[in-house]
Amino acid sequence: MSRLFHFILLLNLGFFLDISQSVRFELESGHTKCIAEDIKSNSMTVGKYSVVNPNEGYPMPDTHRVTARVTSSYGNSYHQAENVESGQFGFTAVEAGDYMACFWAADHKPQVTLTVDFDWKTGVAAKDWSNVAKKGQIDVMEIELSKLSETVQSIHDEMFYLREREEEMQELNRATNTNMAWLSFVSLLVCLSVAGLQVWHLKTFFERKKLL
Known about the structure:
The N and C termini lie far apart (about 85 Å). By secondary structure, the protein is α+β, with helices and mostly antiparallel strands. The protein has helices at about 1-15, 130-135, 140-210; strands at about 20-30, 30-40, 45-50, 65-70, 75-85, 85-90, 95-105, 115-120. The strands form 2 sheets. Strands 1-8-3-6 form a 4-stranded antiparallel sheet, with no helix packed on it. Strand 4 and strand 5 form a beta hairpin.
């Protein structure tokens, strides 16, 4: 029973680790809106976006177009599309860190508000399992087992990733504590030096005035 509980807990954790972010947001013309996602290196990520037609059944207005760009935390561009109604992207992250998806709408007078649907998946959630089933001609059980295997591997990689981040944070904390200790020592030394100079100045002043 305990093993079953831990297995279920592990699977639930896996579903949280494999990010599937679907959002709908409003974008005013002449403005930019960005969405960030922390992605590990060598992780697959896919995304698609589309501008919602304000008048369903009629052609999309020319004002309802966006410019989209996806960049890494190092400034490398992984996707760019200009003046489009919809688009999609997919890549394997080379660099670990925050990836930014930014959407910009051209300025119009009068100002218009666009509604954008954005679906962003990373990790196991980004894999096209239906396509895998077609190519491999495997049954539903094998697909589920493949998903579980990918999920466990993702959890394993995430644990090592979090461990590395923890070590980096500990190293940063140690360096910060060392710097703060030196700063406190220097501050104390400066304060004592200033206090000593003030005492010496007052003593000299009183001796000159023959008050001592």
